[in-house]
Structures are given as structure tokens and as C-alpha cells.
Design a protein that fits this description.
By secondary structure, the protein is mainly β. The protein has a single domain (16-427), classed as 7 Propeller (Methylamine Dehydrogenase, Chain H), CATH 2.130.10.10. Helices cover 4% and strands 40% of the residues. It contains two helices and 34 strands. The strands form eight sheets. A five-stranded mixed β-sheet has the order 1-28-29-30-31. Strand 17 and strand 18 form a beta hairpin.
Length: 429
């Protein structure tokens, strides 16, 4: 028996009982990619460890939202239909689908500012659904925003492009909505076209009533970014600081926070110049981790006051081998990142010191998740590398599935849910 399988067998024998948990939104309960699950699988193949495999209406890159026995995900079919599907968590069967709307995703072409175009790996079903256990909200790259109950009844629907103007983000709207205090909050960060027209295009945050869909507040998000630097595909994260909750947003060369109840800006840090931003912010302890766009610096920010922050609020930053797409994840006081071409790194959270650097197999778009002392890195070609959440590189396994994976993993009830282009996999022990 090899050392690697001895280690895996030991973990199987001593694992604590599973603690069931929901995965209600992009990157899990706190939006950080961290799961409290204690009994997630470590080893699987197409022939082993697959609880079920559900063929999907093709295709989409949104991460599933999971609550109780229901799994929700969105798809943009080859016939240009935008769908919400509800899947039975126990059986792996589609319970119902609802057509939200339709639309075409212009494929990647030479840049033409002012119009959305989508990469080959992306379409209108990029934003992930979100749920509070009673209502599920979906958002699509054509601006459709809609809410349904768990039986599939449409509660309300509106279109953000109709309400607030056509999207001018270069490579397609992909920001996922978040829920707070009975509100659905969306962010749109896009090219202002300020050099091309008298009235610049606004980037904005907007909140709608979860029950009725009526607008509750809207604020313009102003930055000093220009052209494609204005674009961000990031999802806000909610963080508790002191006695209040903050909605933290990264993009347009700026990191800032808002009151999720009113939309009032609380603090902001300008000058994080990089470019269009895909990697979203992550919170841990008193820190906000964010990457300047276009693979520039990874920064650790400590917001100690309201208003304008300065370089003094940057605890540390690193310049080389930073992620362009995948969000960082934090476990055991360590920060784990992966670049699009597979360079994994581990940093000490308090200091930013590099603990190790390793190349993993494949290319990466999915953000890693952390659970029970392990980190899961899922490549686009289906290789999931599982490592210990340790300051020493300790690879436990490599697992391979026969699909293409852009969506980030979800974890619930002792199982992993991996959304491929063709199928949704439920992986268990």
C-alpha cells in the first residue's frame, strides 16, 4: 500500500460525522469558498464515488445553489433559451425547469467598445443563482432578473438593461446577485465610454425587494478607471465589521464597501490599478483579500476607518504568480490561490509570506474551496487536486471526471457537487 493511500484510508477511518449544510450562493454560505462539511469525499473517478450524475440542459457556467433537498442552476441552451432548473438532491433528477427568457451571446471578436461579447467558455448563464430557502433568484447576462418559489412559480421578473441601460462591459455580464435583509443586490461595473460620449455610462449597485422585485435603492459607483479597466466580473461579499455588515465590492481599480440596507458607501481604496477584474474579494479575520485586475498584485487590506483608505491600510501585497480568474480561499490562517495556468500558491495570512509554490495539472477557471483541513482545486478538464490546508505542500489525490468544468464546486451534506458543461456530478464517499 502506498503512502498516499495509507493517508487517505486513515482519513476515511477517523473522519467525523457529516454536518449537513446548505450552499445557497456563489462560493457558499459566506461567499468565501469555505465549507463546514466534515466528511467530504477525497477519492473519486467516473466509475467510483459518483452518487449520481444528472445530464443538464446545455450549457452554463453558474455554480449550483443548494438548499435542503433542492439544487438550482441556470443554463443557456443551444436554442438560446435561458433556463432555471431544479434538481432533486437525493435522486439526481430534474424536478422542473422554467424558461426565463432568451438571448444571444455574441462570441469573442475584435473589440468593439459599448457592446457585450462573450468568450467561448462563457454565455448568458454565467451569474449564479442565490436562495434564502424560500425564494430562488436568478440573473442572466441579458439583464433578466427573476425570482421563483421552490415549486417553480414565478414571483416577479424585471430586466436590468431595460431599467438602467444597455450593458457596456466588454466580455459579458457575469456578476452574481447576493441577498441581505430581504433585498436582492446586484452590481454592474462596466466601461464608462467617457472618452466616446458626452454622458458617461454609469456603473452601479442596485437593490430590489426580494418579495416584490421593486427597487429599494440604487447608487452610482464612481471610479477613476478608464475603458476596459472599468469592467469587473466580480460578486460582492458580505462581511461583519464591528456592529455592522458591509457589502464589499472589487473592480474598476477600486475596493470599497457599502451599507447593504441603504447603499451608502462606507469606505473606499482607490489606486489598485491593474485592469478588468475577474477575481472577486475574499474576507478572512479582519482582512479583505483582492487581486488587481489582469494578474496584478494580490493585496491584503485592513479597513480600519470609514471614508478614503490609503496605502497604510494595505497590510501586504505580492506581485508574482497571482490569480486572474480564481478567487483565493483561506483555511488554517493560510491563503491558497491558483492561476489560470495551474500555479498554486500558499501564503501566510498575517504576513503574506509565500509558504510554497507548486504547478498543478491543467488550466483553471473554477475557484477552489476549503473544507475540513483540505483544499479542492478543480481544473477545466476535470482534474480535481485535493491537498492538505497546510504550510507544507501535501497532495492527497488527483481525481478525474470526463467533462469540462468552469463552475466552482459546491459542498453540502457530505457531498461535492461539480457542475460540468454536460452534467452535474454528485460525488460522495
Amino acid at each position: 500500500m502506498t503512502c498516499i493511500f495509507r493517508r487517505v484510508l486513515l482519513m476515511l477511518l477517523v473522519a467525523a460525522p457529516a454536518l449537513a449544510a446548505d450552499w445557497p450562493q456563489w462560493r457558499g454560505p459566506a461567499g468565501t469558498g469555505v465549507s463546514d462539511e466534515q466528511d467530504l469525499p477525497v477519492v473519486w473517478t467516473e466509475a467510483r464515488g459518483i452518487v449520481w450524475k444528472c445530464d443538464l440542459p446545455q450549457w452554463g457556467t453558474s455554480t449550483p445553489a443548494i438548499w435542503g433537498q433542492d439544487i438550482f442552476l441556470t443554463s443557456h441552451t443551444d436554442g438560446n433559451k435561458l433556463l432555471l432548473a431544479c434538481i432533486d438532491k437525493a435522486k439526481g433528477e430534474i424536478k422542473w425547469t422554467r424558461e426565463i427568457g432568451s438571448g444571444e451571446a455574441a462570441r469573442k471578436t475584435p473589440e468593439k467598445r459599448g457592446a457585450q461579447k462573450f468568450h467561448e467558455i462563457q454565455n448568458l448563464a454565467s451569474p449564479s443563482p442565490v436562495t434564502d430557502g424560500k425564494t430562488v433568484v436568478v440573473d442572466f447576462g441579458n439583464g433578466d432578473l427573476a425570482a421563483f418559489d421552490f415549486a417553480g412559480k414565478e414571483l416577479w421578473k424585471r430586466n436590468l438593461q431595460d431599467d438602467y441601460g444597455a450593458y457596456t462591459i466588454w466580455w459579458g455580464h457575469a456578476n452574481s446577485p447576493v441577498l441581505y435583509g430581504g433585498l436582492v443586490i446586484n452590481v454592474c461595473m462596466q466601461d464608462s465610454l467617457a472618452d466616446l460620449r458626452d454622458k458617461p455610462v454609469e456603473s452601479y449597485l442596485v437593490a430590489h425587494d426580494l418579495r416584490t422585485g421593486k427597487e429599494r435603492w440604487k447608487v452610482v459607483r464612481t471610479t477613476k478607471a478608464k475603458s476596459e479597466e472599468c469592467d469587473a466580473y466580480t460578486t460582492p461579499v458580505l462581511a461583519r465589521r464591528g456592529e455592522r455588515t458591509e457589502l464589499i465590492v472589487m473592480g474598476g481599480n477600486q475596493l470599497d464597501a457599502y451599507d447593504p440596507v441603504t447603499g451608502k458607501q462606507l469606505w473606499f481604496l482607490e489606486g489598485l490599478v491593474g485592469g478588468r477584474t475577474v477575481t472577486g474579494p475574499t474576507i478572512a479575520d479582519e482582512c479583505v483579500l483582492a487581486t488587481r485586475g489582469m494578474k496584478k498584485d494580490l493585496v491584503c487590506v485592513k479597513p480600519t476607518q470609514d471614508g478614503e483608505l490609503s496605502a497604510r491600510n494595505i497590510a501586504w501585497e505580492v506581485k508574482a504568480g497571482t490569480p486572474d480568474t480564481c478567487c483565493p480561499v483561506v483555511a488554517n490562517g493560510l491563503v491558497f490561490t491558483i492561476t489560470d495556468d495551474g500555479i498554486a500558491k500558499c501564503y501566510d495570512l498575517p504576513t503574506g509570506h509565500v509558504q510554497w509554490t507548486e504547478r498543478l495539472k491543467g488550466g483553471y477557471k473554477a475557484s477552489p474551496i476549503a473544507a475540513n483541513g483540505r483544499i479542492y482545486f478543480l481544473s477545466t478538464d476535470g482534474v480535481c487536486t485535493v491537498i492538505s490546508a497546510s504550510s507544507r505542500f501535501d497532495k492527497l489525490t488527483e481525481n478525474k471526471l470526463d467533462d469540462t468544468f468552469i463552475a466552482s464546486p459546491a459542498a453540502s451534506d457530505g457531498k461535492l457537487y461539480l457542475r460540468g458543461k454536460k452534467s452535474l456530478y454528485c460525488v460522495g464517499r
